[in-house]
Input
Amino acid sequence: MRRHLIGDRPWSVLGQSFGGFCTVTYLSLAPEGLREAFITGGLPSLTASPDEWYRTAYLRVLAANDRYFARYPGDRDVAARIAGHLAERDERLPTGERLTPRRFQTLGLGLGASGRFDDLHYLLEEAFVAGREGAALSDTFLQSAGATVSYAAQPLYALIHEACVCDGTASNWSAQRVREEFPEFDAEPFTFVGEMIYPWFFEEDPALTPLRETADLLASYEWPALYDPDTLAANTVPVAAAVYYDDMYVDRDFSLETARVIPGCRTWITSEHAHNGLSADPESSTTSSPSSTSEPRAGCGGGHGGGVGWGCHFLWGWSRLRVRWAPFGRA
Output
């Protein structure tokens, strides 16, 4: 009966990001349904509370800000100017609501993805135009910023994002509470925030305002256990996991702790790719994978963070991956 969670025969599965979290849950609850598992940027913590998770996440976001502003040092002043302008002027997004400084600050969500440093820079570069009352934000900037900060296309992401790290507990708006420990995000110099969902999103985003009560209920809900450490410790399913060294979204140390709990889990630790390495460079991600040795292999290079891949991705071409990624000693 348990096998019917994923079908009548064992599957080979690829889980990216949150999909990796799902894969570890499958390994906990229905391992007999899996033949082998590949995980990219998605080994969850088996021990961290939501507050511990976000405490490390804020540190990684600060590091990503440092890397971004080191590449584009002039953008710190531009971003601060935009935030100051938004505090004084009523600038409206195409969806009709006012763009607030704190919502502008969430543009840092993309700093974990390769290629997004440049996208953000070009957006800031064309932020201002001359208006009748002085400088104003351009239509181009407002259109692009609005599309980025809106959750209209993914309201479920906003609703259950914190639930992903609630292993037998409630979040109680963890990201908002833990932020108080990091005054850097509310002081000079300007600093972007990252993958955090705040309760005020459900006040400022028109797509989320009807869901405010639901969001509060979910934040206070005590979720059941997501993983079974005892089952994982007895694992016999071959597992290969790519761990991105500078991943802004998933903590490297937490991931490696989990890998050590799962027998037979071979890790490929790389700084060559960001969190979105699988989608940004699938050829390299499948050919630069671990050999059949038991030692983890570290890549080199400098990827900057990643986009969030929600959902468990079952790759139709998994057989190609299995040949390229050869941790199991069989094709």
Remarks:
- The longest helix spans residues 50-71.
- Residues 101 and 147 are 16 Å apart (CA to CA).
- Strands lie at 11-16, 34-40, 128-131, 134-137, 239-244, 265-270, 297-298.
